[in-house]
Amino acid sequence: MDAEHVADDLDSVLLTEERILTRVGELGRTIDKDYAGREPVLVGVLGGAATFTVDLARSLESQVEIGWMAVRSYTTSKRSSGSVRLLKDLDLEIEGRHVIIAETVIDTGLTMSWLIGNLRQRGPASIAVCALLRKPNTPAFDVPAYVGFDVEPGLIVGYGLDYRGHYRNLRCAAVLAPHAVR
């Protein structure tokens, strides 16, 4: 779906599909260089990071295995609940392996901190984070981080991110207009 299909619902287009894919390619080249000779495991965070995880994997020239986890750290009103609940656990063994957590947006850092702690208990050789978007005041993590774009606060939809199940298939990343938030 293109932005013009839902233009009335959007405050602004934050990143075009072309700009996103260019940056994902740059992230992939950096990861390839940093992980030369190793086969990292990408752990995608469902559902918002599915698109990003697949595009990131496709940008890599090295072999990569993809695993998925699903967690929830927000209530239905999109306010932080202060806790994280595991909805789907990783199906891969990661002990002794190099893990890169792929996430579309890091906001409060709650989910990412929980994921790092959870995966660390499984004995990987290393853990890193690769996020397409990072909002202000996100805490620093004690693992390497690859970040595509620093963005301002706002309800971002598209490129896998949704609002109440809608806009995930929007090709760009956009800020949802206040009147579209119900």
Automatic annotation (TrEMBL):
Any GO MF annotation of the entry: magnesium ion binding
Reaction(s) catalysed (UniProt annotation): IMP + diphosphate = hypoxanthine + 5-phospho-alpha-D-ribose 1-diphosphate; GMP + diphosphate = guanine + 5-phospho-alpha-D-ribose 1-diphosphate
InterPro entries per record: HGPRT, Hxn_phspho_trans, PRTase-like, PRTase_dom
Phosphoribosyltransferase domain mapped to chain residues: 16-163
Pfam families found in the cross-reference section: Pribosyltran (PF00156)
Keyword entries, A-Z: Cytoplasm, Glycosyltransferase, Magnesium, Metal-binding, Nucleotide-binding, Purine salvage, Transferase
GO cellular component, one term: cytosol
SUPFAM superfamilies documented for this protein: PRTase-like
Family that this chain belongs to: Belongs to the purine/pyrimidine phosphoribosyltransferase family.
Entry protein name: Hypoxanthine phosphoribosyltransferase
Organism listed in the record: Pseudosporangium ferrugineum
